[in-house]
Design goal:
Helix 5 packs across helix 6. Strand 5 and strand 6 form a beta hairpin. This protein is α/β, with parallel strands linked by helices and about 170 residues long. The chain has one domain: 3-Layer(aba) Sandwich (Molybdenum Cofactor Biosythetic Enzyme, Chain A). Helices cover about 40% and strands about 20% of the residues.
């Protein structure tokens, strides 16, 4: 896994994967992926990989395996496919390839965003680790992406440091 060097201002490499049937064939502009890009850049992450793929378990799982095992990114943020529709299969595709699930990430996003929308409880977002890479499922809307990333963004560098075994994190104030 290619990672940033440990110094006073470490950065991590991100992959942004949008799961959307219409986006994959060019019928929809990827506003959610753009929102993730903006937010990770603001947080000091370096975007390294980005793609849009259809809502197919096999394709999603293969992409997650390729990116996490490939060593180019420390974190993969997915957008889309976390609802209750018949084509919403991102959590299943993600769980299929995880070595360790981190249920608290999805739980925190649902709990905190429930104050903003009663539909938050319908999200099936999950998160976990594969090959030292953190994978987090986010909703498919730009608003949902922003709200959920706001909840977890502060914890992500610490999670990535823990995954790496780094001991440089500072306790929150």
């Amino acid at each position: 896994m290619t990672t940033s060097r440990q110094d006073d201002n470490p950065h991590f490499y991100a992959g942004i994967l949008t799961i959307s049937d219409s986006g994959a064939i060019g019928e929809r502009i990827d506003l959610s992926g753009r929102k993730i890009s903006e937010m990770v850049e603001t947080a000091g992450f370096k975007e390294r990989l980005k793609d849009i793929i259809p809502d197919e378990v096999r394709i999603i799982s293969e992409k997650l395996i390729d990116w996490s095992d490939g060593g180019e990114v420390d974190i993969i943020l997915t957008s889309g496919g976390t609802g209750l529709g018949p084509r919403d299969v991102t959590p299943e595709a993600t769980k299929n390839i995880l070595e360790m699930e981190i249920p608290g990430i999805g739980e925190a996003m649902r709990i905190k965003t429930l104050d903003r929308t009663p539909f938050a409880i319908l999200s099936r977002s999950t998160a976990g680790i594969r090959s030292g890479c953190l994978i987090v499922n986010l909703p498919g809307s730009p608003k949902g992406v922003e709200e959920c990333l706001d909840v977890i963004m502060e914890s992500l560098p610490h999670a990535l440091e823990m995954i790496r075994g780094w001991k440089t994190h500072k306790e929150p104030n």
